[in-house]
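Review this chain:
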Amino acid sequence: LPSLSLPSSMHLIQVDSVQRWMEDLKLMTDCECMCILQSKPISIEKEEQNELILSSQYNTCDNLQLLLKRAWIISTELTRIAQKLEKNRWQRVHSMTVRVNCHVRSMMNEYNTVTRSSPEEMHQLEKLLVDKCSEFTAFTERCLQTEDEEILKSMKSCVNETLTTVAQYFGQLIELVLTQEAQSLLRQIELSGSLCVTESAISSLFSLAQEGAHLCRIIAKEGGVVALFKICRQDCFRCLYPQTLRTLASICCVEEGMHQLEKVDGILCLADILTDTSHSEATHAEAAAVIAQITSPHLTFTQHLSNFLENMEEIVTALVKLCQEASSGEVFLLASAALANITFFDTMACEILLQLNAVKILLAACSDKCIVDTPYSRDQVVTILANMSVLDQCASEIIQGNGVQLLMEMLFEKCSSGNAAEAAACERVQQKSAVTLARLSRDPEVAEAAVKLSCIPRLIKLCRSPTERNNSDSVLVACLAALRRLAIMSPDGLEDSDFQQLVKPRLVDSFLLCTNMEESFV
């Protein structure tokens, strides 16, 4: 069975199993009976009225969620059928085929009930899928009626081929349905002059984008980025800017979205929004979120953002100002994340940050626990400091702002919950603070301050104690590098055993020693 390119709500898999079962129960109960009932109107005379009542019960998001849940069930069932087929469990294969047949019909009936019109291509695909599902069910039923192994073996290849075709038709139909939904929402955004209708359409488009990268590609392909930037260029929609920018940030996680952004001079529009002081803080924060998204170092398709360099200085200036004036931790996080990504994007950004006294502003923000209140925010700050620390002038800025003390505190970053994302953020904070110390300690004044603050004992403990660094190898390597740099400046700060094991050998040998070491608090 080929892999289906389905934009299904895969996050559903991660929820509690009982909750998952409860959600699916209404879609899976007596679907054979429901399928027949949904195919017939209760009253011919009142058909039009019934249609209106049904349509009014759901909005676009409800319809879409129902469709995606049904699609997720069908794709899961198709995968299970392939597994049972491999084991020649024909009874199970047939019963599951009947169930898929009913789910497919129910899904189409549900969608057609709330959709006024569908293109001819969709009707053709629906017919092909229904016919192939019926053929599939008939095939598996015949397989139940024979016990001849040779006949079953020859029929198995036909069943496999039919299953593959059903999966292909199903994937194409879902793709077409989602494309039609995206087109419908974008038409509303482009043609409606109503604030209420536009807001509703953007909200639905945002929900659609949250369903995954595949949906974002569809939206971008259908002109979603173009339509949203058009909203951001109209003063009459100013109150919708935050919501519109949030949707853009979601769509621009895919290459198609980035290409569209460049075509409509999206960078220039974002720069204008960020530098326009008449906009609200919420608008500035969401614009920063788009910048953070499109400059993410994890993306491999940011090289074509040539316009970014032309506008980088004014964008960086606006982001530093937003960090300085942030009224909440969330606003600071978005602005600092954008700055952190930009420092990866181009080294000139670090020089601009130095000229803007960004080190002083960031260090001051870290002393305000209401603003820098999570490991995620500290991760952004220390990323900026680590990237800036390659510049010689950075050391004096760090010393003046009591930055060495902050880096020392970051070496003690610990996860306060069992959350995996938070634990990973804490590891990054530890690693980058050690990297920053290693880079800055080429300056004797920084090294002396670090030694006075007892950085060496803390680095040794992080090297020797796996639990202190959450068993992170990247933290270990960074701490070994920082320790070696400080040991050059202050060899008296280490005991002989620490020097012999952690400093004198090659770094790789010390690394292997520490990774195989039983926890020690020496």
